[in-house]
Amino acid sequence: MKISTHALAVVLTSMLVFSAPLYAQQQPAAATVSGQSPEVAMAKARLDGEIAALNTGGWFGRSVAIGAVTGLIGTTITYAVAATSTPELPAEKKLAIANLSPDVQAIYEKGYADKVRARRKSTSLKGGLLGTVAFIVLVASSGS
Description:
By secondary structure, the protein is an all-alpha fold. The chain is built from 6 helices and no strands.
């Protein structure tokens, strides 16, 4: 799912508008280097990390193949592996966020990892189920 710049702007603006009354009740927080409050910087880092997580690394194709060979058992195993995977932030993305504070970098990396893991789970389940359907069709056609 690709998020447009307009959608990102709407989400960030909504976050700012709806959280303004909360800021009025709190002590002013220390600003980050870019002049944003830490809360806004953290929210933006989380969204940026999620947006950066575009590629699932071939989980769909592998899941289709495993589902076609092993059926629902393979689909379940593939999904479990995807759910417990630990995605690593690519080196070029680490370089892109190197100038941010360590807290913002950690939030970015967590957003990236969470989104990649969610996408892996989704694509492995879809691919595995597609492969399982192919497995069932093969088994049913060989029995007749």
